[in-house]
Design brief:
The protein contains 9 helices and 11 strands. The chain is an alpha/beta fold. It has 2 domains: 149 residues, Spore Coat Polysaccharide Biosynthesis Protein SpsA, Chain A (Alpha-Beta Complex), CATH 3.90.550.10; 105 residues, no CATH class. The strands form 3 sheets. A 7-stranded mixed β-sheet has the order 3-2-1-4-7-6-10, sandwiched between helices. Strands 5-11 form a two-stranded antiparallel ribbon. The mean pLDDT is 87.
């Protein structure tokens, strides 16, 4: 069974060629571009893939447009970012798995930020995306899991580009948290229970809800990455990345507090 590929881009001339080369085996590749002003579209068209352009609103909106409004030759779509690569092992596993999967299967989860698993290989018309950033994938069908991994190169465009992206992500995350409808706060026992449910989306939501209620969350993020996950074993690179992730969480907290103070008419 064949697979189509959907790649989201915005000014990805540094990454797009490598991404396209990793899916050269695919007979149906679509680049959904957010009106790049560099050579992204030129490189994609030169590679012979389809290019569709849509103004970016948020990540869920962009992915839902790609899943619902773009026609594909194949019943399954692999969603990629331009800084990701499909290894030969993952390609072979996808093709082999889809050749024997039941009709009830709607997505196969894939890791980008190991070991966080989420939908990337989806059946057309059976999956939708919610949440503007750090998206949630939903389906009424069954879910499966692949063993191989996507290769991710988030720093390919340089540290400054990564920092700009995290600045944008943290703003969107803070706005989502601030605009969430007021509800009675869940008890800690119920939140801990949510960490062990089988549904990956519900489990991830419980993780985030619990994390945002913990004091000193940026420091806990650093501790989790650098100590618990073994970042210290990666030397300076592990220390740098753990600090950057803690800084990202700190930005969310700062921006969330700023939004609250502005809403209450207080000085920032």
């Amino acid at each position: 069974m064949s697979v189509s590929v959907l790649i989201l881009t915005l000014n990805e001339e540094v990454n797009i060629e490598g991404c396209l080369q990793s899916v050269a085996w695919c007979d149906d590749v679509v680049v959904l571009d957010s009106f790049s002003n560099d050579r992204t579209v030129e490189i994609a068209r030169r590679a012979g893939v389809r290019v569709v352009q849509r103004a970016f609103d948020n990540y869920a909106g962009q992915r839902n447009y790609g899943l619902k409004d773009i026609p594909y030759r194949n019943p399954w779509v692999l969603m990629l970012d331009a800084d990701e690569r499909v290894s030969p092992e993952l390609r072979d596993e996808m093709i082999q798995t889809l050749g024997t999967c039941p009709d009830s299967l709607a997505w196969l989860r894939r890791s980008s930020g190991y070991p966080t698993w989420f939908g990337r290989l989806v059946r057309v018309g059976r999956v939708w995306v919610e949440r503007a950033v750090n998206e949630e994938y939903h389906t009424q069908g069954e879910r499966g899991r692949l063993a191989e991994h996507l290769e991710h190169f988030p720093f390919n465009k340089g540290l400054s580009a990564w920092l700009r992206r995290q600045d944008s992500y943290s703003t969107m995350e803070a706005e989502l948290l601030r605009s969430a409808p007021a509800e009675a706060p869940a008890s800690f026992p119920s939140l801990f229970g949510g960490l062990f449910v089988r549904d990956a989306v519900a489990r991830r939501r419980a993780q985030k809800t619990l994390a945002y209620r913990l004091p000193g969350r940026p420091l806990l993020m650093f501790f989790g990455l650098y100590i618990v996950r073994g970042g210290f074993l990666d030397g300076r690179a592990g220390l740098t990345f753990s600090l950057l992730r803690a800084w990202y969480e700190f930005m969310i907290d700062c921006k969330r507090a700023e939004l609250r103070r502005r809403q209450e008419g207080l000085p920032v």
